[in-house]
Amino acid sequence: MQSVFLGSDRRYNRYWLFLGPCNVYDPGHRRVYFESSEDGHWEVIDAEEALCALLSVLDDRGKREALLIESLEKRIVFLCQVMSSRMVKSDRIDNLVQSDQSELDRLEKTLIHQYLM
Fold first, then answer.
1. Where are the domains of the chain?
2. What's the CA gap between 11 and 1, in Å, rounded?
3. Which of 43, 67, 72, 85 is deepest in the core (most CB within 10 A)?
4. Nearest-CA neighbor of 107 among 39, 28, 54, 38?
């Protein structure tokens, strides 16, 4: 498994991309991971909307966030393609779990809240 450090934000939260010899359909493959600087917990950014929400709250005036924005923008097309293809595949599943959407909503609120504080 190869990890790519994407950068950190103004609160020293770190963002990672994991690649590797794992199967392309592995749920952890090619997703952006958020590592909290406060308590070390991890969250997954695996939807295009959450990725766009993150980009919208980052500020390029700070060195850390400017580098993170640059790193994400360099990979945005690739990440959105991967995220979109996962969404299409998940739409085909009849018993889509409602908690997944709740998790996405919670992640977006968490990210936005962290940057606005």
1. 2-116
2. 27
3. 72
4. 54
